[in-house]
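Person: Show me a sequence?

Helper:
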Amino acid sequence: MDLFLLTIGPPILIIFYIVRSDRFPEPLPLIIKTFLLGCVLCIPAGYLHFIFNITQENAYFAGLTEETLKFLAFLFFITKQKVFDEKMDGIVYGVLISLGFATFENYEYVYVYFPDIDSYYIAIIRALSAIPMHAMCGIIMGYYLGMHYFDKRSNFLFQALFIPIIFHALYNYATYYNPLNYLILIAMFIYARKLHREFIKIQNDKLC
């Protein structure tokens, strides 16, 4: 049970923080559906990794497949929802999709992929690295999608996909050069925090 909580706990805690930061809360059923949608994306991602022979040696290509799947899920599911009605929703649902994906992927890494390696070690390392990386990609993607849909600027749509792909690919590549991957995580954190705070300020201004 401790291992299971260590596996799913970190993404759930980040989700809780992001959802709570939204001053105009989203409906719980849609929050759950979006999280589960992110989990399901692991299935086509696995097939794409197999088809394109994405392995540990060329894992940076996973940034392209995984972030594209998250992007498409947002476009074809979230944007059709009536409650998708303000910029912060982009970040909330972007993180839910990303961390739904990361939670299921984390389960696979801890319980399936590496049976000969200490599962607690894998869970802790991923809690400090891959899980935050997916969360910050979700924030960045959600920020630019929010800007695209509510500021009506087409270049933001491209940035919503391109920037997370680049960050994700750089992170995966840098895992072979520790601690470079943590420097990338710090850069992502600073950037994602800035974007998140911008939308928080917009919401606070609405309430004034």
